[in-house]
């Protein structure tokens, strides 16, 4: 039997009866990009990163890695027991025994070489008055070499029954009971005031070692009137401290000049070093 029901039309929600609704096609250029536009966008090329920028980033990364490695190596070296001091060697000692220096430096043994500096070594050697200055040299893996610069004795000063060896600053570096055993001039450290003492020692410190060894004593009535006496009794008139290096060279030349038996020399006057004379 045939269906006699009439077809019915249900309008969509929100649409009044009698109004036709239509959906805009995806290809409609008004509502959005067309298929052709999307196809065009999909064909846009992505340019690679510039080579310069990439290379720069690679270099910076490599440098950062190298710096980190070097820092790690340095830190490891500073604290590594591999570089701990096991041997202390000493050079430059004449007044001092190398053994006494090594004994004073005993505290640095077992300490890594990179942690040791000149100031620390100088502090350990400060009780040894003969030491003027020090420098160190690390010899990996475990040796520390200490270079000593000693004070140089320039005169003898009578002290009771003994004679003290003093340097240009008046520091006592040793003593002897026999002044003839030491080739240094004798100066009066008791009667001379500090200014005269410094004037005399400054002159003696300027003299070459072979000339200093020929001096018997030194004196000064004022800082401008320093006088030296040779072991053979001859006198050196020095004067003041001006141009003392030039005076020392002139005196050395005069002492090396051949002696003339017919004209004996008793006085060498270098107080005016550009016009020295003998008499």
Automatic annotation (TrEMBL):
GO biological process, one term: cell division
Transmembrane feature ranges: 59-79
GO cellular component terms attached to this protein's record: plasma membrane
Organism: Arthrobacter bambusae
Domain Cell division protein FtsQ/DivIB C-terminal positions: 155-257
Region (Disordered): 1-43
Family annotation (InterPro entries): Cell_div_FtsQ/DivIB_C (IPR005548), FtsQ_DivIB (IPR050487), POTRA_FtsQ_type (IPR013685)
Residue ranges constituting the POTRA domain according to the UniProt record: 83-151
UniProt protein name: Cell division protein FtsQ
Keyword Thylakoid: no
Record keywords, A-Z: Cell cycle, Cell division, Cell membrane, Membrane, Transmembrane, Transmembrane helix
